[in-house]
Write a structure and sequence with these properties.
Chain A is mainly α and about 325 residues long. Chain A is built from 15 helices and 2 strands. A two-stranded antiparallel sheet of chain A has the order 1-2. With about 450 residues, chain B is of the alpha+beta class. In chain B, the strands form 6 sheets. In chain B, strands 6, 9, 10, 11 and 16 form a 5-stranded mixed sheet that branches. In chain B, strands 3-12-4 form a 3-stranded antiparallel sheet. A two-stranded parallel ribbon of chain B has the order 1-2. In chain B, helix 2 (about 75-85) links the parallel strand 1 (about 65-70) and strand 2. In chain B, helix 7 (about 205-215) packs parallel to helix 10 (about 255-270) and helix 8 packs antiparallel against helix 10. Chain B is globular, with a radius of gyration of 25 Å. The chains are: A mainly alpha (about 325), B alpha+beta (about 450). Chains A and B meet through helix 2 of A and helix 1, helix 3, helix 8, helix 11 and helix 17 of B.
Amino acid sequence: MGRATKYSFKWRKSILPWWQPYVFILPFFALYFTFKLYPVIYSFFVSLTEWDGITERTFVGLENYKKLLTDARFHTSVKNTLFFTVIPLPILVIFGLILSVLMTSPYMRARRVFQTIYFMPYITSPVAVGFIFAFIFDIRVGFVNRALMALGLIEEEIFWLGIGKLARIVVVILLIWKYMGFYMVLMISGITNISPELYDAAYVDGANQVQCFFKITLPLMRNILTFVIIQGLIGSFQLAEDPMVLFTGMVTGGSGVVVGGPERSALTMIWYMFDVGFGTTMRYGYASAVSFAIFVLIAVFSIVFFILLNRKEESV
Amino acid sequence: MKKLLLLFLSISLVITLVACGGKGTQSTDTKPVSGSTGTDSNSTTTTTGEESKLGYGDDTSIKANLLIWTWDQAALESSANTFRETYPNVTFEFIAVSSTDYLKKVQTAFAANDRLPDVLSADGTWRGKLYNLGVCAYLDKDPINYDISNLYEYTLPLSYDDKGNLVGIQQLLSPGCLAYRADIAEKWLGTSDRKELEAMMPDWDSFIEKGKEVYEASNGTVKMLPGLDEAYLIMSNQNDAPFVKDGALNLEESIGEAIKYLAQMRDLGIVDKLSQWSPSWTSAYSDGSVIFFAATTWSIRFCIQANDPEGSEAGLWRLMNTPGGGWNYQGGSTCLWKDSPYLEAAWAYVRNGTSIERCEARKEIYWLQNNTKAYLNPEYPSLMSIKCPPLGGQDIAEFFIGEVAKNTLTRRVSSYDTVIDDAVKYVYQQMITDTSIGYEKAMELIKDEIYSQMPELK
């Protein structure tokens, strides 16, 4: 063996003690454990107790989870959450994709301006969004009713924020309006990664725009679409802020505020968890159980969709 | 050199980690909560018995830094400045907390063994919950020993916890009544004189009859009240029967009549569909579509003047007694944190809230404080009469103190209030559009909702 130089393995080993890499990654894992993992573990233990944060904790085992199975309000929140997933998500993905194709089209003028306009609702404060929609859909002074009456489409004002089915429609419109720009931006990032040479080659071979979209754009966007759908699914299951602000702010609130909006039509799982723990009742234990149930539901749906979407890719 | 550099970087990372772990929001009972400026000053909370014969809270040299959470910082800052004229060594630290988040914040701070505010506010349907958390000082026990004869009798049920301890003081008087615009009442009811209207509608049956006439005369465009929520707010508070009696629901006695009238008013179309504080409710004050609104002292400024500036400027508004009698229209309580290191100073501040000086200051904004000796008392001539220009010069001291407060009933607050209130709202909101929900079905739905949250009441 030759003489050890500063680049030889033997020399490198002496300046890199075995513990050194761990010290560098320790801060991240310490913070992750403290602020992410530990609260989750602690929350699970709290879910096995009956606790209001004030009195002593009482261990009840799996009673809170058993209660979930017969809790009508929790079931309502699950149904509402599924509704707010199944309806807006496909619309957001499809129209987000169409918008992204338009925004990346060479024939589109002032693309950046339109991209900014579409993205702005996403960065608007949720409180402001809640106020805007509460005003727009107000029964008497709201723009929507006034416009519909001026056009002669309705004779009597529609109680958008007072009837359960209509309130759900308002929430769906709010979600589409707010997140369309975000989905568009994600899709644009996928489209811009596709090599333009593929399109050039396709045009040379006589393909038109539609054929290019279905044969080149869509297949090559599979990964980004998978990410967008999974991410949208998780976001929909975690929905709470937007309907909460719409139905509990001063604009629609006051003495007539009902948790979950009219007929609890906008009560989502996260909202219900928040109400159980910090709102109508103060039951930390049960709220923790609800949060774990939500976690399981999100995980199950995410895994199922991920498998389905990837299975299609494998078969291709 | 590289070895030293690597060693230095490793140590820096470890120190950073340790430093981050030390910066938490946990604090001891004596440290300020996060978000505060941390200007904790030295404090002496009491004088010794041997040195002074001053009562508890009378020592104006007392030093303290009072922490107060509030959703009305402007009003409290103004009262704090006045207080400091007498107690110059007391400083204040205000943290803005919305009314809807207040109880949550107290609850989580308590669970985390964090410092609570020295002066707490309690309002709305969560007042009873705060009282029963076990964090409030007993005001009728040592060392405070507050004399409740200073408070108006109708406010007393709003002051006790479930065990009968005095824990809160309603500083602002808010006896409920009805507000109306004189020109609109004149047009649809034939008179704007308050006494004539009160004689015309002494109870809810006569109110409904008049409502039918107005409905027919206006082709359904003018309503008597803005919405079922406002109607329920009034009628449910005209009854002092408890929601829960001997551990069981007592709905028929407490809110049964209110639900019957709601169904009746809805069926006759004499009540609109406007939610309180919504844009359409706000505009109804000035557009003439609604005749009567729930009102009290604070609503003169926040509702009448805010929603109808022109009508207020012209002095078109009036207040009248509610059919069926007086009722309490919100108005929060003030409590003390029992483990406050500045309990005496906090008590002095709270007690000051119902002083004659505060009554004098608050009359400028038409607010009346909870002090039985202040108003209509020849000892204080400036508080004998308080004319209100937005109300056409109506004397609110004579009206609220001389009339309304005397016939106001109040239900005792309890920790069940939030759940019951939410259940009732859930049902009457459906009643607005679903005419199949009458009294019987409404009561059944309300009970189902309550039992789902509190099965122990079955």
